[in-house]
Design goal:
Blueprint lengths: L7 H6 L7 H5 L8 H22 L12 H13 L20 H22 L8 E4 L3 E4 H24 L1
Helix pairs in contact: 3-5, 3-6
């Protein structure tokens, strides 16, 4: 991983430390504010962690064949670090209109802690035989999901820094 799970809180929340509430809720028209971005990332992490936690007792699984679009998206995001086109957040990761700063911070930190526990408990033994479907990239293993979350957090951390600078 580029940043690693332990660095995600500093990456995402670090720029917001000590900032006034107004900074958490400022955004250009039609864009998410920092609080919404943190909630979106927290919801993504929660989905990943909760689903792997639920499946940890499953027998070994096999990856479903990826479509051509999933394969191109997978290679672009997880190999190159680039988003092909503009993605819309899945409904399950769409943030509330005005999420609570404290709630989204807690939610994000709990999600990261859960992923750290899953990484410790499931790897390397279940690195290649346990899958959770990503809506665009197809079935991903836990190591792939961890790489995705690392990339995803870095992507949204850039947006948070841009909101704070603007």
């Amino acid at each position: 991983m580029v940043n690693g799970l332990a660095n995600l809180p500093q990456l995402v929340l670090g720029p917001l430390a000590g900032r006034a509430d107004a900074d958490w809720y400022r955004a250009p028209p039609g864009k998410w504010c920092a609080a919404q971005i943190v909630q979106h990332v927290a919801l993504s992490i929660e989905y990943c962690g909760r689903t792997f936690d639920h499946r940890r007792a499953h027998a070994p699984m096999r990856r479903r064949r990826r479509t051509a679009r999933q394969l191109v998206s997978y290679l672009a995001v997880l190999r190159v670090g680039w988003v092909p086109g503009r993605w819309r957040a899945p409904v399950r990761t769409t943030p509330a209109e005005h999420p609570s700063r404290g709630e989204v911070t807690r939610h994000f930190l709990e999600g990261v802690d859960r992923l750290v526990g899953l990484e410790r408990d499931l790897l390397p033994a279940r690195a290649a035989d346990l899958f959770v479907k990503h809506p665009v990239l197809g079935d991903l293993t836990l190591p792939e999901w961890l790489r995705f979350q690392d990339w995803h957090c870095a992507h949204h951390a850039r947006q948070i820094r841009a909101r704070l600078a603007g």
